[in-house]
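Structure tokens please, single chain.
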Amino acid sequence: MRESDFILLYQITAGIEVILYGACMAAFLRPFMDGDGGGRRSMRRKCLLVLLAYIFVFYLGTALSFHGWTCMLLLTALLAACRRFLGIGRELLFLLGLLFLCTQRLSLMAVQSLDYFSSQLFLADADTPEKVFLGASLNHLCIETLMLLMEGNVLLAEGDCGQGPRVEQGGQQGQAFRGTAAAGRHPGAAGPGGAALRRAAPDEA
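Here you go.
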């Protein structure tokens, strides 16, 4: 492999990486988005907005030479401006953005620890410049794939943990409402309190 081929491969993988990380962020925010009764089509538009915002901020940071925390703050501010469309509160959005960046940085640190050993493995028999570029390309592909899988799994676990209390809380609220409605419709619920509950309870179909 020549040096020009290695540079081209690096640029292509960098572009694919941006799209995949944007998709990871959209998937991470998806459980926290409000459906607004629009169904899957509305949810796809919201996820597409997050993906396009991520790509836009990344290439803007590349053009203006800022990365890391600055990119994430700009991205979070951009998404916060669309918080009503996304159905996510401002405080929660900033918290999720911080969590996403920390997960990305921790995954990078973990994979960089393996990069030292994997580079020695791929470059062990590289005695020509072509073999060096080939080994470096294979090592780059393996490290980037491993980092993407690691971050995706961690974000998936974090999203599931964040959704658990909300589902449980919704179930408890549903049971409380059903109990209140049943008390309001019960013939023995007499007096001012019972009348108020009957007015508040929805009619049965």
